[in-house]
Request: fold
Amino acid sequence: MAGKKQFDVDTALDAAMVQFWRAGYADTSLDDLSRATGLNRSSIYSSLGDKDSLYLRCLDRYATRYGDRYDRALSRASEEPLRAIREFFEVTLKRIADPDLPDGCLVAQTAMATPVLSSTIAARAIEALGFQRARLRTALNAAKLADSDADDLAVHIAAVNQSLAVMSRAGASQEQLRAIVDISMNALSQALHARS
Reply:
């Protein structure tokens, strides 16, 4: 269409997601989003929605992107549960080590900021954390752990996974993060061996 600037919505959403991820919801202004996406304010509103709507779209995009990777990592939990959980953690460790991405985790940052966010955004972050626990619980049940053990370990592994993102944002090294994973993997190994 003549006179209208064309842009790729996926590219703009990725740029907005990284901006929110880097600075957080409260510290990201519309000017920041405009610089990140290359769109003016009216284009952001008309094409991507208001700040809350855009944040929700970015949070969903993030949760889907990494959720799909977590699902692939956990897909062989019934045959190789330890390897599957290790690969689950690797998704997070690779994301943290990627120099093109901000430190931390958009879901973890959102969860930590829930007291100052809209109830809709806070609920979406809690829902994303719930999905992570549910996918872990499913994988652990596939490894034939008792329901109560699977529930407890799913909560533990999800908490460790989120703490990796928080620790990375606070400057923890890859070696320190891998040591945290190793301790959790040892606990899981003991639980699986106790079952057999």
In short: The CA atoms of residues 59 and 122 lie 11 Å apart.
